[in-house]
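Section handout, structural biology tutorial.
Before the tutorial, make sure you can parse a SMILES string by hand: atoms, branches in parentheses, ring closures as digits. In the record below the ligand is LZUJQKHR, and the chain has 252 residues. In the tutorial you will relate the predicted structure tokens back to the input. Do not try to memorize them.
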Amino acid sequence: MSEPIRVAVLGASGRMGATTVRAVQEAEGVELVAALDAGDDLRAVTDAGAHVAVDFTVPSVTEEHVHRLVDAGVHAVVGTTGWDDVSLGRVRDHLTRAPGVGVVVAPNFALGAVLSMAFARQAARWFESVEVVELHHPDKVDAPSGTARHTAQGIARARAAAGLGPVPDATTQSLDGARGADVDGVRVHAVRLRGLVAHEEILLGNPGEMLTIRHDSFDRVSFMPGVLLAVRRVADRPGLTVGLEDLLDLGA
Ligand SMILES: NC(=O)C1=CN([C@@H]2O[C@H](COP(=O)(O)OP(=O)(O)OC[C@H]3O[C@@H](n4cnc5c(N)ncnc54)[C@H](OP(=O)(O)O)[C@@H]3O)[C@@H](O)[C@H]2O)C=CC1
Ligand SMILES: O=C(O)C1=N[C@H](C(=O)O)C[C@H](O)C1
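Predicted structure of the complex:
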């Protein structure tokens, strides 16, 4: 039998970190060797001999964590949001100088969420209108969600590839924010409501019809199969992987 994958969790006392700690402790073929939170020294990851570190911290520190992990030759599985093309580009560049090290950055590890984004990309070219609504618990620090950004970017790419023009919108006067945020030409709306966990609706409209693609995470355990999949696969994927879709063979 092969040795278990030695896993460190960063942000271990947080909502996602604590769920990940439990999932790693209960899963086959993986072993929790370090659990770090704010104020802990990242060197504990290498001291514990971790092969993979899972980061569920905060947008302001996650990129620094990844660079330090890459320098230490530790693979990284990152669920923390706040990434953009520039920060991802810096990690991609860094990884060219760290052959063999893999980093997976995924805005959403829930299998249903990854599938709904893929379905939205597939549907996008057939619809004139599209808007994204994300709904989360009110303790979330960022808006719109990383998932909503990733969803909108994928839809925008699919629309551009199909030669579709801008989404129709005659609005010339509105209160600031009334039409949501513009992500690559796709409107994204963020709801924060006590009782919610993580939810997203993609609304696609044509004359006389609407397609709604909806995903609900009712519990953070929904993210764990995706996290464990990435932990098991990251060492076989040197370089940067963005999104879980490639690991599920769903394409960009
Ligand atoms: N990809 C995915 O599938 C998912 C991604 N997320 C994302 O994961 C991130 C975390 O979410 P959530 O767990 O709800 O947030 P929490 O606020 O519950 O957890 C974040 C944890 O990180 C800790 N932390 C802060 N700074 C550091 C640091 N420098 N080193 C180590 N730990 C640190 C915090 O400690 P303290 O509170 O003491 O500051 C806290 O315990 C968010 O960006 C969220 O959007 C969430 C769900 C799913
Ligand atoms: O903060 C959260 O809770 C979540 N964050 C991620 C995001 O911003 O997309 C993933 C999921 O939506 C839950």
